[in-house]
Amino acid sequence: MKSALKILTLVITLLALSCGGGEKEQKETSKVKLRKQPTEKKATTKKSTVKASQTIDLTNKGVGPISSLDLPAEIDQKMVAHGEEVFKKMCTACHKVGKKFIGPAPNGITERRTPEWIMNMILDPEGMVKNDPLAKKLLIEFNGSPMANQNLTEDEARAVLEYFRTLK
Q1: How far is the C-alpha of 146 from the C-alpha of 103, rounded, in Å?
Q2: Is residue 97 a part of any domain in this protein?
Q3: pLDDT tens across 26-58, in order?
Q4: How far apart are CA 159 and CA 34, in angstroms?
Q5: Could you read off the pLDDT of 115-132 as tens digits, one per residue?
Q6: Which of 69, 109, 138, 167 ranks highest by number of CB atoms within 10 Å?
């Protein structure tokens, strides 16, 4: 029985040694052949797209309560002061004079939009975004941040418009 035990121990030892432990580590190498790209440059056409905030549209009156508005040539300074006050109180959370913020800067808006469009956007932003193609594009440009309806009166909106006339 002692000899059987010795033979069994020897067999187990030989099996253990043959299964691993004494192997040399092999490095895996992979060879990747890169194809050279053709040296010809393909002509790429770049669409010249103008941002909605920079689009000039002096025909669109928008959708909303204002269908016609005549602005006098002279700017009413009293109305400007009131409009600036309303703008600072109600609009500066999203709009900054001179720079893009959550919404577009109001500078030069009267050179890009009709007075009716501006008034309709102030008075009914939901209706404008729903029905006006330019307002829809603005919503996309400004990351889907809809303009909040501040429930301004027509007189307040008109004063804000007058203030916008002074921003170049």
Answers
A1: 9
A2: yes
A3: 555 556 666 666 665 555 555 558 888 889 999
A4: 66
A5: 999 999 999 999 999 999
A6: 138
Place of tokens 């919503």: 139
Tally of structural domains, the chain: 1
The single residue listed with the structure tokens 């004079």 is: 97
Q: How is residue 76 written in tokens?
A: 């009413």
C-alpha torsion sign, points 37, 42, 46, 47: negative
Instruction: Evaluate whether residue 23 is within a structural domain.
Output: no
Residue 39: inside a domain, yes or no? no
Q: Using CA atoms, how far apart are residues 168 and 163, in angstroms rounded to an integer?
A: 11
Domain of residue 138, CATH code: 1.10.760.10
Contact 104, 110 (CB under 8 A): no
Residue type, 162: E
Domain that holds residue 128: 82-165
Q: Which long-range contacts (CB under 8 A, 24 or more apart) does 92-97 make?
A: 94/145, 94/147, 94/148, 97/167
Q: Of the candidates 48, 51, 40, 65, which has an alpha carbon nearest to the alpha carbon of residue 118? A: 65
Mean pLDDT of the region 3-20: 66
Place of tokens 């006006």: 132
Q: What predicted TM-score, i.e. pTM, was given to this entire model?
A: 0.70
